[in-house]
């Protein structure tokens, strides 16, 4: 169907660079992440987190962003393309930010379990000055909104390609909102 959740693009980078290169497919390995990506591993790979405690489990194996975020920031004058915010998977028609912790996303043969929200950092302003304020906002009530995508772990290995449908399986109730990981 036209509004079914789908993969728009996939990305990986072998080095710790901010943006990731478009690929025709990526391979996800259970418990490790995106094969060939700098964040691949059972323990944390994000440089600042490695410095704090390299033995932490890697809850950030796969980064997903909805393309609708690019439409939102375009309204404020920013142009962002798939892969530029460092995501591995760019989706369409999927409210990633509204999913609860533990949601399972089946994409092709692979399964990703959502662990939490990406906590955007100042490097985003290196892409375009002021962009961080578009993806890290404070509401009138003082609530912090993190809009830079969700993180997950690979629960079943498989290939992911642009055009793959995304099947969403919510965890049992009670549902817990996503928090930064």
Automatic annotation (TrEMBL):
SUPFAM superfamilies: PK beta-barrel domain-like
Residues annotated as domain MOSC: 20-169
GO MF entry, a single one: molybdenum ion binding
Extent of the signal sequence: none
Gene3D superfamilies registered for this protein in UniProt: PK beta-barrel domain-like (2.40.33.20)
PROSITE patterns per the UniProt record, alphabetical: MOSC
Protein known as: MOSC domain-containing protein
Lineage: Bacteria, Bacillati, Actinomycetota, Actinomycetes, Pseudonocardiales
């Amino acid at each position: 169907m036209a509004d079914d959740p789908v993969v728009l693009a996939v990305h990986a980078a072998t080095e710790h660079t901010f943006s990731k290169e478009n690929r025709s497919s990526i391979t996800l390995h259970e418990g490790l992440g995106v094969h060939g990506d700098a964040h691949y591993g059972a323990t944390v790979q994000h440089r600042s987190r490695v410095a704090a405690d390299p033995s932490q489990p890697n809850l950030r194996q796969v980064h997903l962003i909805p393309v609708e975020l690019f439409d939102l920031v375009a309204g404020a004058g920013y142009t962002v393309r798939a892969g530029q915010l460092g995501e591995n998977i760019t989706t369409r028609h999927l409210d990633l930010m509204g999913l609860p912790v533990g949601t399972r996303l089946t994409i092709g043969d692979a399964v990703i379990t959502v662990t939490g929200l990406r906590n955007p950092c100042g490097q985003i302003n290196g892409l375009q000055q002021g962009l961080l304020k578009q993806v890290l906002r404070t509401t009138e009530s003082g609530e912090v909104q993190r809009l830079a995508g969700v993180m997950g772990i690979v629960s079943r290995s498989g290939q992911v390609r642009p055009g793959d449908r995304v099947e969403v399986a919510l965890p049992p109730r009670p549902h817990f909102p996503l928090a930064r990981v």
